[in-house]
């Protein structure tokens, strides 16, 4: 994992000061304007989860049942099930990490979950059709 590249790209998706989020059954849900850093970081987490499971992981960007300005992101495990509870903890930790701690948090997750960083990863992204779900 190229932590320098991750740090550089993460700076383009900085975490808003004072924002704390919790991964729950529906993933992360909040105003779309507060989710940029979460989307970036959940992409990283999906790659680690894929490497760990040696399977495809889904990233779903949606909150179509919520008002237009709301949005969300959740990870989907290999058989279409909810993300494993231990990985929900990783998601919360990663989303809330301050920028300077992001590389260490990624290394910690990789070590705790025994992720083979040389393993290939495959991530599928899905989204609803609302404009706030489009890639930026």
TrEMBL record:
Alpha-D-phosphohexomutase alpha/beta/alpha domain segment(s): 51-92
Annotated metabolic or biological route of this protein: Nucleotide-sugar biosynthesis; UDP-N-acetyl-alpha-D-glucosamine biosynthesis; N-acetyl-alpha-D-glucosamine 1-phosphate from alpha-D-glucosamine 6-phosphate (route I): step 2/2
UniProt-listed Pfam families: PGM_PMM_I
E.C. number(s) listed in UniProt: 5.4.2.3
Keyword Isomerase applies: yes
Catalytic activity as recorded in UniProt: N-acetyl-alpha-D-glucosamine 1-phosphate = N-acetyl-D-glucosamine 6-phosphate
PROSITE patterns: PGM_PMM
GO molecular function, one term: magnesium ion binding
GO BP field: carbohydrate metabolic process; hemopoiesis; UDP-N-acetylglucosamine biosynthetic process
InterPro entries found in the cross-reference section: A-D-PHexomutase_a/b/a-I, A-D-PHexomutase_a/b/a-I/II/III, A-D-PHexomutase_CS
Keywords assigned by UniProt, alphabetized: Isomerase, Magnesium, Metal-binding
Stored SUPFAM superfamilies: Phosphoglucomutase, first 3 domains
Top EC group: isomerase
Listed cofactors: Mg(2+)
Family, per entry: Belongs to the phosphohexose mutase family.
Record-given protein name: phosphoacetylglucosamine mutase
The species this protein was found in: Cervus elaphus hippelaphus (European red deer)
Lineage, top ranks: Eukaryota, Metazoa, Chordata, Craniata, Vertebrata
